[in-house]
Structures are given as structure tokens and as C-alpha cells.
Amino acid sequence: MALIAFVCMFGGALLGAFLRPLLPGHHVSADSRDVVKLGAGLIATQAALVLGLLVSSAKGSFDTMNAEITQAGARIILLDHALARYGSETQDVRKHLQRSLRSTIENIWPKHRDGASGMRVVESSTEWEEASETIRELTPQTESQRLLKAQALQIAGELAQLRWLSLEQSRGSLPTTFLIVLIFWFTVLFVTFCLLTPSNATVITVMLVCALSVAGGVLLVLEMNRPLEGLIKASSAPLENALNHLGR
Length: 248
Prior knowledge:
- The protein is mainly alpha-helical.
- The chain has one domain (2-245).
- The chain has helices at 2-19, 30-86, 91-108, 119-124, 127-136, 143-169, 176-196, 201-224, 237-245.
- Helix 2 (30-86) runs antiparallel to helix 3 (91-108) and helix 2 (30-86) packs antiparallel against helix 6.
- The two termini are 47 Å apart.
């Protein structure tokens, strides 16, 4: 989509440069240029405002995902500590928890892409549900163990909620029509710029850099809207830190 945006905008600049020599002289007179500049200024303000809001909204989604990952890491550590206090009967559950977390990290932030990975693998995985089921099957013998089991089940439920919430948020996407309209506005702007300016190497270079910059803004919006996929991902540091604390 960012590449399409770049092609449309830079193509619009080239179209404007091609059309300028074909226009009658009175079409590029001072009065005509003033009207065109007013229209271009209106579109530029509108397009810049919308793109800025999109970047801000996408950054908010990205920050929210980072916060949820941090919360998940903290809850996993608390769950492991509760199971450790329960007694030696929870050794298998704690090892299962460790394997599940390691598998999740490897699927979302793979170091090598030789096998299946990504959000689809995480969504179809049943490791976390199996760990919760194992906790439910614990048979507490004392009041302290009953309280720890209840605490562990509560934390496991909160983790399940965070997991599905993160999966749903990772599918965030902008409506195609919205992006088409935004790209159309910027394309019109680039056509207008070259209609008003004699073409030379400097102008074409500036238009190229501007098209790349705006396309980069579109890329940022699209990438931060999918915080667990693509080029720009939320940090895995909280979960890796939690993994290092498990089993201690």
C-alpha cells in the first residue's frame, strides 16, 4: 500500500510536469495560479491533518499493545510465584507454563523463519488452555493451597483475556476506502505542485523525496496498526524477562 501511494504521488508529479507545457498561457496566469494555490492549500491542510491523526491513532494502538505485553509479563511471573508457593505438585504446570511462553515468543518474534510462525500459530495454539486446565485439576490439601489455587486461576483467566485481546488488536487495519481517498488527495497535490512550477532536476528530485516521505508516513500508520506483525513490532522484552524469571 505504501508503494502504491508512492507511485500515485510521484506519478502525479510527473503528470503535472507533462501537462504544464500543454496548458494555454492564461491558464497559468497570476490569477489562475492564486486560485490553484488556494485549492491546493485547502487539500494540503485536510490531508496533513488526517495523516497526522492516523499516525497518532496508530501510535496509540502500538503503545497500548506494548502496555498489554508488559502486563502479561508481570502476570506470568506472579502466576509462577503462586504455583511455586503451592508446592512441589506444580512442577509440571510451571514447566508447561515455561514452554508455552517460550513457544509464544518464538512464534511472534521468530529469530529464524524456517517453520510456521506468526499470529495464526499463536491463535491456534492450545498450550495456555492446557496449562490453565492443569491448574484446575490441582487438589489443594490446606487452606493456603486453596487460596493459592484460586489466585493462580484468577491470574490465568486474566492472561487468557489479555491474550485474546492482543490477538484481536493485532488484526487492526484501516478501511481501504479511507486510504484510497487519502492517497487521492496527496496525488492531486503533487499534480498541482508541478502544474505551477517549471520542471527541472531540482523540482523532480524534491517531488521524489516528498513522495517517499508521505509514503513513509502511510507505511508507519499501516505497520503500527499491526503491532505484532510486519516490520515494526511491539517489544518482546517484557515476555523474555518473564521467561528468565520462570522456574526460579
